[in-house]
Write a structure and sequence with these properties.
rod-shaped; 3 helices; mainly alpha
Amino acid sequence: MTKPNSTYLELLEQRIELLNSLSATLLAAQSAMAAFDVGGLESRIVEQQGLCNEIQKLDEQTERLQYQCAAHLRLRGSEETLANSPKLEETLVRLHQAQAAVKQLNTAHQALVRRSRRTVSALLNSLHSVEGDYKKAALQQSASAGPPEKV
Protein backbone atom coordinates (compact mmCIF):
# COMPACT_ATOMS: atom_id res chain seq x y z
CA MET A 1 0.00 0.00 0.00
CA THR A 2 1.37 3.39 -0.95
CA LYS A 3 1.94 6.22 1.51
CA PRO A 4 -1.04 8.33 0.27
CA ASN A 5 -3.30 5.28 0.46
CA SER A 6 -2.27 4.47 4.02
CA THR A 7 -2.66 8.14 4.96
CA TYR A 8 -6.16 8.10 3.46
CA LEU A 9 -7.07 5.03 5.51
CA GLU A 10 -5.67 6.68 8.65
CA LEU A 11 -7.83 9.75 8.04
CA LEU A 12 -10.90 7.55 7.61
CA GLU A 13 -10.07 5.74 10.87
CA GLN A 14 -9.73 9.08 12.67
CA ARG A 15 -13.11 10.16 11.26
CA ILE A 16 -14.70 6.95 12.55
CA GLU A 17 -13.26 7.59 16.02
CA LEU A 18 -14.54 11.17 16.02
CA LEU A 19 -18.00 10.06 14.89
CA ASN A 20 -18.09 7.42 17.65
CA SER A 21 -17.11 10.11 20.18
CA LEU A 22 -19.85 12.36 18.80
CA SER A 23 -22.35 9.52 19.28
CA ALA A 24 -21.24 9.16 22.89
CA THR A 25 -21.67 12.89 23.57
CA LEU A 26 -25.14 12.86 22.01
CA LEU A 27 -26.13 10.01 24.33
CA ALA A 28 -24.63 11.83 27.31
CA ALA A 29 -26.49 15.02 26.35
CA GLN A 30 -29.77 13.12 26.19
CA SER A 31 -29.12 11.68 29.64
CA ALA A 32 -28.30 15.15 30.97
CA MET A 33 -31.56 16.51 29.54
CA ALA A 34 -33.57 13.69 31.10
CA ALA A 35 -31.89 14.36 34.47
CA PHE A 36 -32.41 18.16 34.18
CA ASP A 37 -28.62 18.55 34.42
CA VAL A 38 -28.19 21.88 32.64
CA GLY A 39 -24.45 22.07 33.38
CA GLY A 40 -23.92 18.56 32.01
CA LEU A 41 -25.94 19.38 28.90
CA GLU A 42 -23.96 22.56 28.30
CA SER A 43 -20.63 20.73 28.62
CA ARG A 44 -21.83 18.03 26.19
CA ILE A 45 -22.79 20.74 23.70
CA VAL A 46 -19.29 22.24 23.95
CA GLU A 47 -17.80 18.77 23.37
CA GLN A 48 -20.06 18.26 20.35
CA GLN A 49 -18.97 21.58 18.86
CA GLY A 50 -15.31 20.65 19.30
CA LEU A 51 -15.81 17.23 17.72
CA CYS A 52 -17.68 18.75 14.77
CA ASN A 53 -14.81 21.22 14.25
CA GLU A 54 -12.29 18.34 14.32
CA ILE A 55 -14.38 16.37 11.82
CA GLN A 56 -14.54 19.39 9.54
CA LYS A 57 -10.73 19.82 9.64
CA LEU A 58 -10.27 16.12 8.98
CA ASP A 59 -12.63 16.29 6.01
CA GLU A 60 -10.57 19.14 4.56
CA GLN A 61 -7.40 17.04 4.89
CA THR A 62 -9.10 14.05 3.31
CA GLU A 63 -10.36 16.12 0.40
CA ARG A 64 -6.90 17.62 -0.18
CA LEU A 65 -5.35 14.16 -0.13
CA GLN A 66 -7.91 12.83 -2.60
CA TYR A 67 -7.12 15.64 -5.05
CA GLN A 68 -3.36 15.14 -4.64
CA CYS A 69 -3.64 11.40 -5.21
CA ALA A 70 -5.86 11.83 -8.25
CA ALA A 71 -3.48 14.37 -9.79
CA HIS A 72 -0.45 12.17 -9.02
CA LEU A 73 -2.06 9.11 -10.61
CA ARG A 74 -3.07 11.07 -13.72
CA LEU A 75 0.51 12.37 -14.11
CA ARG A 76 1.90 8.84 -13.84
CA GLY A 77 -0.78 7.47 -16.13
CA SER A 78 -1.39 4.87 -13.50
CA GLU A 79 -4.49 2.82 -13.01
CA GLU A 80 -3.48 2.14 -9.40
CA THR A 81 -6.37 2.63 -7.02
CA LEU A 82 -7.34 1.83 -3.50
CA ALA A 83 -10.83 0.88 -4.63
CA ASN A 84 -10.11 -2.84 -4.73
CA SER A 85 -8.62 -2.92 -1.24
CA PRO A 86 -10.44 -5.14 1.28
CA LYS A 87 -9.12 -2.90 4.06
CA LEU A 88 -10.74 0.13 2.42
CA GLU A 89 -14.03 -1.70 1.96
CA GLU A 90 -14.09 -2.74 5.63
CA THR A 91 -13.16 0.79 6.74
CA LEU A 92 -15.88 2.33 4.58
CA VAL A 93 -18.49 -0.06 6.01
CA ARG A 94 -17.50 1.00 9.53
CA LEU A 95 -17.53 4.65 8.48
CA HIS A 96 -21.06 4.34 7.09
CA GLN A 97 -22.19 2.59 10.29
CA ALA A 98 -20.70 5.36 12.43
CA GLN A 99 -22.35 8.03 10.25
CA ALA A 100 -25.72 6.24 10.44
CA ALA A 101 -25.45 6.00 14.24
CA VAL A 102 -24.70 9.73 14.55
CA LYS A 103 -27.60 10.56 12.21
CA GLN A 104 -30.01 8.40 14.22
CA LEU A 105 -28.86 9.84 17.56
CA ASN A 106 -28.98 13.37 16.20
CA THR A 107 -32.57 12.85 15.02
CA ALA A 108 -33.56 11.47 18.44
CA HIS A 109 -31.76 14.35 20.16
CA GLN A 110 -33.58 16.92 18.00
CA ALA A 111 -36.93 15.36 18.91
CA LEU A 112 -36.02 15.46 22.61
CA VAL A 113 -35.04 19.13 22.33
CA ARG A 114 -38.35 19.95 20.58
CA ARG A 115 -40.35 18.15 23.29
CA SER A 116 -38.34 19.86 26.01
CA ARG A 117 -38.92 23.25 24.40
CA ARG A 118 -42.69 22.62 24.38
CA THR A 119 -42.59 21.49 28.02
CA VAL A 120 -40.64 24.59 29.10
CA SER A 121 -43.03 26.83 27.15
CA ALA A 122 -46.04 25.21 28.83
CA LEU A 123 -44.45 25.61 32.27
CA LEU A 124 -43.63 29.27 31.59
CA ASN A 125 -47.18 29.94 30.39
CA SER A 126 -48.52 28.27 33.52
CA LEU A 127 -46.20 30.33 35.71
CA HIS A 128 -47.20 33.57 33.98
CA SER A 129 -50.89 32.77 34.47
CA VAL A 130 -50.52 32.53 38.26
CA GLU A 131 -47.81 35.16 38.63
CA GLY A 132 -50.26 37.86 39.71
CA ASP A 133 -51.76 35.66 42.45
CA TYR A 134 -48.36 34.89 43.95
CA LYS A 135 -47.28 38.51 43.70
CA LYS A 136 -50.38 39.68 45.61
CA ALA A 137 -49.90 37.02 48.30
CA ALA A 138 -46.23 37.95 48.70
CA LEU A 139 -47.08 41.64 49.02
CA GLN A 140 -49.78 40.93 51.60
CA GLN A 141 -47.47 38.69 53.60
CA SER A 142 -44.69 41.24 53.64
CA ALA A 143 -47.13 44.01 54.61
CA SER A 144 -48.53 42.04 57.54
CA ALA A 145 -45.06 41.11 58.77
CA GLY A 146 -44.12 44.74 59.15
CA PRO A 147 -40.72 46.28 58.60
CA PRO A 148 -37.67 44.07 59.07
CA GLU A 149 -36.00 44.20 62.44
CA LYS A 150 -32.78 46.11 62.79
CA VAL A 151 -29.92 44.33 64.44
